Structure formats: structure tokens, C-alpha cells
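Backbones bend. Our protein:
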Amino acid sequence: MKLEELLKEIGAKQVCGPTDLDIREVHFDSRKIGQGDLFVALRGVNVDGHLYIEKAMEAGAVAVVCEQLPEQLHAGLCYVSVADSAFALGNILSAFFGYPSRKLKLVGVTGTNGKTTTATLLYELVRFMGKKAGLLSTVCNYVDGKQYPSTHTTPDPLELNQYLRLMVEAGCEYCFMEVSSHAIHQKRIAGLDFDGAIFSNITHDHLDYHKTFKAYIEAKKAFFDNLKKDAFALTNADDKNGRMMLQNTAACKYTYSCRTLADFNARAIEKQLDGTLLQLDGQEVWTKFTGDFNAYNLLAVYATACLLGLEKEEILRCMSMLVPVSGRFETLLSPEGVVAIVDYAHTPDAIENVLSTIKGLKGKNNKVITVVGAGGDRDKTKRPEMAEAACRWSDRIILTSDNPRSEEPTAIIADMQAGVREEYRRNVLAIPDRREAIRTALLLASKGDIVLVAGKGHENYQEIKGVKHHFDDKEVVREIFGL
């Protein structure tokens, strides 16, 4: 594609050199540059791409987009300065791949908890209805039925547009994607044409990156602020920050609620360990999901499907066929009658949601035993809060490692123990080895007791000192149960 075509929507401040150049590929990593490519210099969290402009030119780049022009300009090459390289990159890549998001009904899901479940269930729902769709999520990416591994909640702009292009080529009509606060703040979604946005909730998380809770909220809100006029903005009215998301959006505004009057409402009529009977806008439907948090996820799915113009009766019929996402409240039963639940809960709010659900489902004389850790090199302030939430809702707690990364598991556990009040201490064990922690919890359990293994869910690895080791909570539980 000609460079001049790629520069149409980026608001260039200054252009030095020819723009009738043929661009072979677009990259923001100088190590991937080849002859005839365009290099976009980004100011990243750890690396400033402006330091690699000369290297990119030596590797064959014929043009560069940057926020600050280099002192030395080479003849015959093109240098473009912009106010924001990240914003420019998204728009350039969207143009380079033929504006694929404009050819799909693209819906983004943002919030602290529930993103993966909501996006995945929307993907499954429309496929049950005979339509082609794509999914971009924490667990896995799909182009129609073809599976691709996932490395980030929201991919980088190059990957994003490559996936969207593949979806268009595969004949997909819809794409559902998780939109993380990091992706919004880093403008990874710049240039994408969203037809709808969903807000699930916002609680304590990612303060290692955003620094303040206010900045975290503002990152989420920016997604809604930038929606087009004919898109829909759907928010959880029961979250105290839910309506704030809609304050400055030009999109059509809608609310959903399980507690108050809203555009879309749900109520749990009957709750069991293997499912919930829900009333969705006056219609009853049996779902294979447990917990109030899943009632919210399912309501968001139902509301979104309605807003996309799908037929209500068909939506309800297909919702009864949906099954839980991998590592989200997955239940395993031992031959002796001990119930183990594996869940991705890794924030104080998520742990409380899962445990309050379990508490309401367990037998009167049965125990709740929780195995929980916290990730290393991430938001440290939530660690004591996670432990405190686990203590309030559990009879026994085992603090262990999650993905310690570069930190010592014992140091992470010590941070968590700071949230354990004196009255709970006799119920808390610290076992850094996660396999041994799970084994101990299951051995402490009797028939009818429920063991929650929290934090990793779908993940099949532990990251220790920069190395990923295979580790799957479900595999460990099955092994100990003899399943």
C-alpha cells in the first residue's frame, strides 16, 4: 500500500520526504523491519522506539512515523511526525489491513471481572445461532472455529488487525473481544470501529500500572468516551461506577441490573451447584452457571444479543446450551464426595464473589476451604485484601504461590498475611508449594466440603524466575482425586 494512503487519518504534524512510497509491512519493533517497511516509533512503558529509528532505517525501513524527528534525515526516505505515535499506529494498521473492524460487528467488553466469560459466551451464543464469529480473549483467540493461542488480554495493534482481517476473510459477521485497561491507556484499540461496548464492574486491580484507582477508572471510561454515535454503550447499573462510564459517550446508552430497574433485568430464582434458574426480562431460563456474578455475566450477554438485533426467543433457547468458560467456577467431585472448584478469581472482589456464592450453596455442617495466592511483580496493594476476603468467607485458608515471577513466594505470602486479622490466624496455613497446598486442602476436606482453588483458573503454567513451568490446577485436583 502507498504510504500516502496510510497517512490519511493520523493527523500528521510534519512530513519530510516522499509519500508515494510502496509500504511492504508496518512494524513498531525495529527487530522485525525488512526492506520497504514502515517503522512506527512508540514510547513504550520500558522502551522508547525513537532510540531505534536509525537501526530501523539501516534494516530497510523506507519511512518512519514518530513523535520527534531525528536530527539526521536521510534523502529519499520519509519522516512523519505526529502528536501520538500509538494513536497513529492503530489507525495506520487499520488502513493497512483494509479497515477490517468496519466489516464486522465488533463488541468490546471491559471491566475488572467478567470480561472473559462475557466475551466468550457471546461468541458461543451467536455460533449456536448459526452465525460466524471471532473471539479475542485472555483464554484463547478464535477465528470462526479455528483456535489461536492467547498471550495478552488484548493483543497489540498489529496482531489485533491481523486477527480481524482473518475474521473478515473467514466470513465472520461478529467479533467479541476483551478490552483491558492497559490496552485502552496504551491506545492499542486506536483505529478500531466498535459497534458496542460493555462495562461489567470495576474493583481493586492493576494499581501497579495505573498508580491510582481514579486513573484506572478513567482508562475504562475512555473506551466509552470514544465510541461512535450509532454504537451502543451497555453498563452495569449495580456497580457504583457503572453510570459514570456513560457520562460523556456519544453512543446509545443502556443499563442492566439484577437489583434495580434498568433496560435489561435478571433475577436468580433457584441456585444450585450445577446451575441457576434465571428470570431474564420476565422469561425463565435454566443456565449451567452458578453465582450472582455469573447472573450479571449472562444478563450482559442477553442484553448485548438483543442490542445486536438477534431474536429474543432464540437467544433464550441458546443461552440454556451455554457452558462455563475454562477455569471459571469449574467443579470437580471426588469419589468421596468432596467438591473442588477451580476459578480464576485473582482480585479481592472476585474472591469475595466466588466465596459468597459457595457459602450459599454448601451444606449447613460443611466447610469451605480456600487455596489462594497472588501474582508476583503485580499490584501489591491487593494482596492483604485478597487474604482478608478469603478469611471472611472460608473456614480454612491456605496461602500459597500463584505466578511468583521474579519475587520470592514467601515474600508474597507475607504481604497477604498482613491482611489476616488475629481472629482468623489459627485457620490459616502458609504452604509456598502450590501442588502441596492443593493436596493439603483436599486432605483436610470431608464429604460435602467445598475446596476453592483460586487465582489461576485456565492457566496451565507457573512462572518462576522468568521460566514457565507446566502447572494446571485442574490436573492437580484430578490427580489427587484419582479421577
Observations:
- The CA atoms of residues 207 and 213 lie 7 Å apart.
- Residues 292-307 form the longest helix (16 residues).
- The chain has a mean pLDDT of 94.
- The chain has three domains: 3-96, 99-320, 330-481.
